[in-house]
Amino acid sequence: MILGNHLKSLSFVHFLALATVVPLGTSYAQDKNPGEGKSVTIAQPNDDTGWIMSEVYAQLLKELGYEVGMPITLDVPVAYQAVSQGSADLYPDGWFPLHNTYVDTPDFGAERVGYVVKQGALQGYLVDRAAAEKYGIKTLDDFKRAEVREAFDRDGDGKADLVACPPGWGCELTIQHHLDAFDLREFINPIKATYSASMADAIAAHEQGNPILFYTWTPNWTVYELKPGEDVVWIQTPGIDLPEEQQELAETAIVSGVEGCVEDPCRLGWPVNDIRPVANTEFLKANPAVETLLKEASIPLEFIFSQNAAMKNGANSASDLERQAAEWIEANRVKVDEWLGKARASVN
User: Fold this and answer.
1) What is the C-alpha to C-alpha distance for residues 348 and 157, in angstroms, rounded to an integer?
2) Which of 39, 45, 81, 36 is nearest to 280 (CA)?
3) Bridge partners, 278 (sequence order)
4) Could you tell me if 229 and 193 are in contact, meaning their C-beta atoms sit under 8 angstroms apart?
5) How far from chain centre, in Å, is Cα 306?
6) Half-sphere exposure (CA, 13 Å, Cβ side) for 258?
């Protein structure tokens, strides 16, 4: 009896020792760092509105033990090439179907995994509210009217100036398609300079009382600087006419409940997009924890909106970005730990 009680006592002490190291309800898999000894290279676009996604994913990967260096900033087409060829492992800011043209190619060596934001990214054309009301602007076709064209012509070439997208961006290709499809070439001049600089110039013109026409997307800082329904309005395309690779999504180009649109439902003329991570295929095969994390994680639009606004109002340093991501992660720690737990468990 004495020996039996002693053995029972030892078992209990051993149990307590284990409980001290591994809390009840925590699996051994959750204590692993599947990324230990491995590194991840993240590519990001040269437009800074998506950089917060790179930072959030970087911090999550670090919690899995991966070494993550500074992201490499590239033009969008080059970023896809880098991930496909393996000089980068992950691109968190993929827009689909807008970016289908970059991935639907032979021998593309990367794939879409999970969703940053599902069906939450709008795109379209906006004009300042005052000019829309003064000239009765409802669609891009209204820029065929001489008085409208003249009001929006800021460089004197006889065409309305449109803040468009730099060459090579997916949106630049769709804008070019619209100009041809709706016979707008002789009426609208697409400005293809750096987007942030072009928008800053347009905002300055707006503040001086000049009409402005611009393309934008959400999430983006522009909808904080120029609020739809107050400062600007979404206008419609004359019809739905999309590039061939997007035509099957035509029905998503008409959206109900768009705040600040001239009509409801709103014929934006652009498909609603998913924001999705794109990762190198071989890298995913070697790192199942990363693949699982990408499938589980997401970032709400509201946070991206607020971060973009803070960034454009001065909180735009690397340390600001790091802090903003860390604060969001800690505010959502329960959900984040679920993602990380599933990622760790996937290596078994």
Assistant:
1) 65
2) 81
3) 91, 112
4) no
5) 13
6) 32
| Confidence bin at 168 (pLDDT 50/70/90) | confident
CA dist 246 and 83 (Å) reads: 23
3-state secondary structure of 99: coil
Are 173 and 163 contacting, i.e. CB atoms less than 8 angstroms apart?
Answer: no
Q: Which CATH number fits domain 24-119+274-345: 3.40.1280.10, 3.20.20.105, 3.40.50.150, 3.40.190.10?
A: 3.40.190.10
Please count the other Cβ atoms lying within 10 Å of the Cβ belonging to residue 179.
19
- DSSP-derived 3-state class of residue 274: strand
The continuous run of DSSP H or E covering 347 comes out as none
Q: Is the peptide bond before 219 cis (omega within 30 degrees of 0)?
A: yes
pLDDT digits (tens, 9 = 90+) for 58-80: 999 999 999 999 999 999 999 99
CB 65 within 8 Å of CB 159: no
DSSP, collapsed to helix, strand or coil, labels residue 75 as coil
